[in-house]
Amino acid sequence: MAEETVRELRASFAAGRTRPAEWRAAQLKALVRLIDEKEADITAALHDDLAKPHMESYLHEISLAKSSCKFALNGLKNWMKPEKVPAAITTFPSSAQIVPEPLGVVLIISAWNYPFMLSIDPVIGAIAAGNAVVLKPSELAPATSSMLAKLLPEYVDSTCIKVVEGGVTETTELLEQRWDKIFYTGSGTVGRIVLAAAAKHLTPVALELGGKCPVIVDSNVDLHVAVKRIAVGKWGCNNGQACIAPDYIITTKSFAPELVDSLKRVLERFYGKDPLESTDLSRIVNSKHFQRLTELVEEKKVAEKIVYGGQTDEKRLKIAPTILLDVPQDTALMTGEIFGPYLPIVTVEKIEDSIDLINTKTKPLAAYLFTKNKKLQQDFVANVPAGGMLVNDVALHVANPYLPFGGVGDSGTGSYHGKFSFDCFTHKKAVLIRGFGGEAGARYPPYTPEKQKILRGLINGSFIALILALLGFPREGR
Questions:
Q1: Residues pairing with 415 in the sheet
Q2: Between residues 92 and 181, which one has the greater pLDDT?
Q3: I want to staple 411 with a disulfide (CB 3.0 to 4.6 A). Which of 199, 224, 397, 407 is the partner?
Q4: DSSP for residue 421
């Protein structure tokens, strides 16, 4: 089936269906209509899959997807235009341009934690760039996957944009095909499988992965504001099941007690005395992930570090916001990405030590700093390698379409959002155009000392050498 799907899409692409700006704009407008007309269906699917609060579904998935569509529609004509660039003296007279062209037939494999947004957003970029697309939604969010498979063909051109549902078997079959690009969002483990499959066909890959996103909290901050922002960025983002959610906090030993007390107060105000009953917290996606998360804190040397929360309800797949203090660094909680509602706090003697601590780990997808210290801010930006970073807030950098979103090192490769999504699925073709004038005999054999002198002058930017070359020196017969 996968082979047949790719064959159909290649035929559509070869026929030129996806290239016109009118086709691209029509598909993007159709996606806006889908979001407007089917918001209730989208929200219901997200609630079925993750018990995601309606407000969270709207803020983090529906509104962002719609904004992404509109941004692409507004920029599409300019993005598609060839970009004129200077021509070098060595090719004078000539004109040069960079022509954006679609890559061809692309595969998008999306994630379960933001199953609508992480499906639609890269599709928007692929469509805007003029590609034919296969979307493979995550089988771990079955309601959203089914909804996308049903609704997308009702709105977009199904000869060029297809949804393939299924699990490991279907994904493996898709990865065996030859694609012009693969875009994958998910774990590093599966990312390695995707990369290995792509290598067989020399297929370029964008990997949007995760990592342990750190939050440095200085003692000079407005603590109440900082803690509210951290809390909503951690537990208000799918109950910690987000690639950009804070994974751990670093602060000083002396400031940690005050930070913990403030977190406790804010969490109780946000989610009540019994957070398992809160309708504002998403549940864990499935029993396998619930088991994985509970095992992280079962070890005695981890469990004894819990200073707040820790309640669980296996039947409803709920885990309460949980704060831990000074968990040993060699535990699974501190070595792998948590992707859940636990937030460990690591203490250092001086806040400046936090940068070295972050750099002992793999490069994160996002890094956060709360401070009023400009020197610390400068050091943080200059010395912490991360996919992206934000000072004095959490997660909001993804909402700016003028910033690229993507990882570095273990947190991924490639970026998207806004025009970067268009660029992600575009080949920038170099085009140089010359006429038949300006013939420089010095470029042709036999290479005499006189010719070498003129050519060296040309390469080094000599105006005199250019004039001599254009005048046909040294002279030779035709």
A1: 406
A2: 181
A3: 407
A4: H
Please give the single-letter amino acid code of residue 453: K
How far apart are alpha carbons 273 and 265 in whole angstroms? 10
Query: Three-state SS string across 378-443, please?
Result: HHHHHHCCCCEEEECCCCHHHHCCCCCEECCHHHEECEECCHHHHHHCEEEEEEEEECCCCCCHHH
pTM greater than the 0.90 cutoff: yes
User: Kindly report the CA angle at 85 between 83 and 86, in degrees rounded to 5?
Assistant: 165
Query: Is the separation of the CB atoms in 103 and 428 below 8 Å?
Result: no
Report the helix count and the strand count for the chain, using DSSP H and E: 19, 20
CB 115 within 8 A of CB 46: yes
Beta-bridged to residue 431, according to DSSP, are 97
End-to-end Cα separation, the chain, in angstroms: 61
pLDDT in tens, 429-471: 999 999 988 777 888 888 888 888 887 887 887 878 777 776 7
Query: Strand 312-313 vs strand 318-319: parallel, antiparallel, or unpaired?
Result: antiparallel
pLDDT in tens, 27-72: 999 999 999 999 999 999 999 999 999 999 999 999 999 999 999 9
And the tokens for 471?
């005048």
Tell me the catalytic residues.
Answer: 208, 243
Token readout for 346 is 């690591």
Helices (H), 38-141: 39-50, 54-57, 63-80, 117-128
State the burial class of residue 383 (Cβ atoms within 10 Å of its Cβ: 0-12, 13-18, 19+): exposed
Q: Tell me: cis bond preceding 474? Omega within 30 of 0 counts.
A: yes
Amino acid at 214: P
Peptide bond into 275 cis (omega under 30): no
> pLDDT class for 164, splitting at 50, 70, 90?
very high
Alpha-carbon span 338 to 343, nearest angstrom: 9
